[in-house]
Amino acid sequence: MGEMRATVTPVDPVWDRIRTEALEAVRNEPLLGALIHAGLLHHRTLEKALSYRFSLKLASGEMSEQILREIADEAYSADPTLGAAARADLVAVYERDPACHRFLQPILFFKGYQALQAYRVAHWLWQTGRHDMAYFVQMRTSEMFGVDIHPAARIGKGVMIDHAHSIVIGETAVVGDNVSMLHSVTLGGTGKEEQDRHPKIGNGVLIGAGAKVLGNIRIGDNSRIAAGSVVLSEVPPCKTVAGVPARIVGEAGCAQPAVRMDHQLKGCRDCEE
Questions:
Q1: What is the CATH number of domain 12-146?
Q2: I need a surface site. Which of 25, 44, 185, 203 has the fewest CB within 10 A?
Q3: How many Cα neighbours within 13 Å face the side chain of 98?
Q4: This prediction's pTM
C-alpha cells in the first residue's frame, strides 16, 4: 500500500477571526448579509477575499471584474508577501485606529486599507514588467479611493493610512514598515527632475494630516511630522518636526510614535522606554 499523507490545514488566525466577525455581523444586520457573504464568507482565504474586493471596486467599462480578479489572484499566488503585508496592514489599522473595532471593517469599509492593497497588486505588476496594467490600477485606485500611489513606489508592511483622502505618493518614494499617515499627505518631488526625487520615510514614522514631504530626503526612524507641515530637509530619527518649512521642535516623545498615534507636540503619553 502506498504511504498515506495527512493533509494539514494552514493556521490563519487573522482570517479565522474575520470569518467569525462576519458571521456575527450577518446575525446583527441581516440586510448586509449578501454583501458580507459575497465579500468574505464565500472565500477560502483572505487573499481570495481581497482579490474579490479589488476587482469589485476597480472594475469599469474599460476593465471587467473577471479580468481584474484574475490579475489579483495571480499576484497573490505568485508573491506570498502580498498576503503577509495585507495581514500586517490589517492588524495595524485595528491597533491604531480607535474607530476600528473589528478586523472586517478595513476590508469592507476603510478606503485607506483597500487602496493600499490595490497599490500592492499594482506594485507587483510593475515589478513583473507589466507597467501599463500597473498604471491602469493606479488610475482606478485614485478615481475610486482618492489615493494616488505610483506603482513603482516601495511601501513596507504594517502601514496604516487613516481616512486616506487625497494621499499622493510619488514614483521613487520609499515608505518603511509600521508607518502611520493621515489624510492629505503628500510624498512628492520638488521639480521636474526624473531621477530619485521623492522622500525616504523610515520605519515607525508618524505623518500628520496635510503634511507635505518633498524631495529626495530621509525621514529618520520613529520620527513625527506634525499636521500641516512642509518638510524640505532631512529629519533625524526620533525627532518631531513642525511648521512651514518644518523644523525640529523636540523629541518624538516615545519609542513608537506611529503606533501611539499621539500628535501632541508635548510627546506621547504613557510611553514605554
A1: 1.10.3130.10
A2: 44
A3: 3
A4: 0.92
